[in-house]
Amino acid sequence: CVLCGRTDDCPEKYGEKKTFVEYNVTVHYYCLLMSSGIWQRGEEDEGVDGFLFADISKEVKRAAKLKCNICKKKGASIGCSIPKCKRSYHFPCGVQKECLFQFMEDFRSYCWEHKPVQKIPDKECKGSSQCTICLDLVEQLPLYSVLRSPCCKNAWFHRECLQYQALSAGMFFFRCTVCNNMDKFQKEMLRMGIHIPEKDASWELEENAYQELLQCYQHCDTERCLCKKGRDYNEPDSKWEIKRCQCCGSRGTHLACSSLKSWEQNWDCMECRSIFAKSGNYSKQKKRSLATSNKTNGASCLLEEPSPKCPRQSPGTQHSFLLQSPKRMCQNNSNLELPASNRMAMALSPMMSNRKRSLRKRHLVKERREASNILKALKLQITTKTTRLNINAENIWNSALKGFRQRSFGPTNTIEISFTNCKNRLKRRTAASKHHFFQLLMLHLQNSSLFEGSSAKNLSLDFQAVRDNLYFEAGKMIAVSLVHGGPSPGFFSKTLFNCLVYGPENVKPTLEDVADVDVGETIKMIKYANSLSNLKTAIHDCYEFLAAAGCLRPVTELSDKNMLVDDILNYHVIKRIILPLESFRPCLKTLGVLEKMQAHPDEFSSILCHKPERLSAETLCDLFTIRSSSDVNQVGGADFWMVYLKDVESGESAVTLEDILLFATGSLSIPPVGFDPEPTVKFLRIRYPVGNRLLNCLELPITKTYEAFKKKMEFTIRNVLRVERE
């Protein structure tokens, strides 16, 4: 090694040993990381992991003048980080002398005299206990070779055991072996000199490690198999293809043996049906409803969007007498007045104090942060296997539907998007394409006939969509978008969210959930009837509607209207759309999203029922990590960046904060799962800003004045985004 002079090849102690014959350089990775006079000035694929060969040569010359305080030989490239301490040493010598090296932030090193130690009260240092990794005895003393868990007082480890565990588990799986705490545990171990590499766990990288989990069940379990070639015969894309149970996956059937028309049609085995029947969640009329719905005219095309001025009626109003306009039935009550108290309550909207609003906002931000951590854990399921989707932005729904239904598509596959322009048949595939695709897809779903309502939406009743299994596909798209880095829907009503999390039988809808104006008027006439005679008149005028909905009940006093209103709301908001809900809810289990929603309802409500928070200068400042050298700080590049964000936020710029985020990452908002890799800002000696969307990196020019910096930012961002839009 050109830095320590040793020939040892021990990756666990000194890091990977790399040799570059062309440059006559051999170096230990840890020796390079810890050297005091060198830093990464290149990209990851340049030099030795970003350390340029010219810089390595300079560092070798600098270290040649320094004598190691341990072995007394020249070439000591590492110095103690305490300013008053002048000790220098080689990395292997430092390890031998029990110096401490921190593999984080500025990669500081401390000599044997100034190294940080764990503060442990004397009363807790008693005897010995088992190391929870190797299970050998370890002394409960604050020694260099012994470390204590910061989250479990009785958990002690050998330093060597922890280092081997960290190298094997990597940053995403290294945690306390007793309580599974990750954040607090990793922070303390990094402080105490444990190197935690930013990589996946070794057992996740082993080829074919989970091969047995990929074996699919291939057997027809119907009582009478019609296939002449036997129950194990499976011919894809034919009626003898085997379809597995959508719930348990451990039972199968030939399509022909269960009269399934296509592979996309759902099928439940008898065991799962009996479980659902006992729990009350399985509808025996499901198949009959689907069959009879074939006689019904199709709903309006899914691509057709409602008028922005007129509230849309439920799609089901075109198909069933149950939803005939009750406004016509109740014409005689059109002049019915509301009680004065109710009119006043409706007229006066509650004013929330600034303090309460601020607390609520902070609480929402905290919940979104928790939801982001949960989604990041789910994202670990995504493999390197790639599925490419060819998307036509002018027909986003049909092209997305085709892509999600193709046989090669898997939710755990890495998704690549190619946008197709039908006019000139050109394709473009960029790092921002996936963000843009999911944004267009979520926007289309929000305005599609699958949902109804203004801002907070519930599922609608679209018989054609039920027949085509579109609710199932929509739910899968939302789950995939959340985990793969797309935006969240943000338009779910609280009622719809509660139906998904707690089940429809445990949800009580409100009048705000009724999207159909005519049905809403009927409910109001009954709810605000101020006398028994007015109530009976209102019921009489919409008698046929109530009878068809199964909501007729004898009324003997005015208070009976409350139960009647509850019945109508329950029918219109929940029972009427039970078929779409039964199709939409199970598909959210894709990638484990529904299970996490049920375990963390508050966190997921913050992203599914609320639009993303508006970007602020503070948000972008926290989002982008500044990577710069000391000469940039002298010029003031970081200060220019922060002042510019404040100017943009206050409207003193021609661009918006959303434009800056789009320029750097290709996304207009921060996705719930966050960005991968995390956004960074680099100050370089370049003429104009560069948005590297592949790395989410914003490369900014070093200028002498703020005016020049602002002028270059606005000129570049405006023109780049204008060209992209064109």
UniProtKB/TrEMBL annotation:
Pathway: Protein modification; protein ubiquitination. GO terms for molecular function: ligase activity; ubiquitin-protein transferase activity; zinc ion binding. One of its GO terms (cellular component) is nucleus. The keyword Magnesium does not apply. It holds the Pfam family HECT. It is found in: Nucleus. Residues 1-115 form the PHD-type domain. Keywords: Ligase, Metal-binding, Nucleus, Transferase, Ubl conjugation pathway, Zinc, Zinc-finger. PANTHER family: G2_M PHASE-SPECIFIC E3 UBIQUITIN-PROTEIN LIGASE, PHD FINGER PROTEIN. This is G2E3 ligase. It comes from Ramphastos sulfuratus. The lineage of its organism: Eukaryota, Metazoa, Chordata, Craniata, Vertebrata. The gene is G2e3_1.
